[in-house]
């Protein structure tokens, strides 16, 4: 099944823009305390993306989205630089948040909160994960301890969140909390909030192995945050369902973007191996090196096919929870192997900042944890195997 002409044309424009305009920004010194691009740099690149007609390319002028298969080819091209997804406005968490608000948000929420994300003038944060030390929600959202309670025509939210990507500098927040009382007691709710808000305090922004996303991964305290009732996303108690609407495509989008980065890392490593001479011949002619690059091609094709398969399932309207788990595991592990081989092929140069290869290695290592670590997805798949077995043997 071929990709549409419109998607191919958009992807080609994005690739040209990223390679010609954004790659030169990779050495730009405008970075925060741990190397992430500053908002000044992000907004400058987005202005150039707007002028080139490639800003938020997966959302069309009429507000409709490309299909997941179409989105895949576009986001893969955006990932040819670690800065590319930021520049064309398809980076996490914004891309996933835009998808969720487009699916569930009221007209007011779309106008007030979604529109500035789509036009690239604002960043967002998704407040779900909580500190493990306090027994909060990490890979298991049912452990959520942040609470919300209705007080007149406002909801009051209290809790603590951790690893909130982009919270520092975000203008739009989606806050997830568990209803403390009422008809939705025990169920999760989602709320849209303007940021910054004095009731949401950034406690700590740790230095992490990755640094591609502005604002880092903050720990925040939510202290008596008051949110008007009409800023609830969807219905009270349905937050876990909405999280799944967001998470399955978001996992896949991560695969798309980091696939593009690994394509570029492989290009750099291949160029190095063909130019570098050692022991009387080019590195590529040594089997130990050439075979690693050959294995990269195999893993890249496997990852591409898994992404396309999962995207096809999501395009049928399925939540694709199982498929996205399988794809996230398969692709993240394949991309890790590719990034590791690229470093190995380049030797000492591969662990320096002379190229993006070392950053890609770090980013992919973090990706294996984010949006659910490999082990959680395998555990979930194992549970499905057990359920299916029980169902097929119910009459035995």
Describe this protein with a few key phrases.
Butyryl-CoA Dehydrogenase, subunit A, domain 3, 49% helix, Butyryl-CoA Dehydrogenase, subunit A, domain 2, 11 helices, Acyl-CoA dehydrogenase family protein, alpha+beta, two-stranded antiparallel ribbon, 396 residues, 3 domains, 7-stranded mixed β-sheet
What does this structure look like?
With 396 residues, this protein is α+β, with helices and mostly antiparallel strands. The protein folds into 3 domains: 5-91, no CATH class; 125-237, Butyryl-CoA Dehydrogenase, subunit A, domain 2; 240-390, Butyryl-CoA Dehydrogenase, subunit A, domain 3 (Up-down Bundle). It has 11 helices and 9 strands. It has helices spanning 5-22, 39-52, 68-78, 84-88, 94-104, 107-118, 239-275, 287-315, 321-346, 357-367, 374-392, and strands spanning 124-127, 147-151, 154-165, 172-179, 188-194, 200-204, 217-228, 277-278, 281-282. Strands 1, 2, 3, 4, 5, 6 and 7 form a 7-stranded mixed β-sheet that branches. It has a two-stranded antiparallel sheet with strand order 8-9. A hairpin with a 2-residue loop joins strand 8 (277-278) and strand 9. Helix 8 packs antiparallel against helix 9 (321-346). The longest helix has 37 residues, at 239-275. It starts with a helix and ends with a helix.
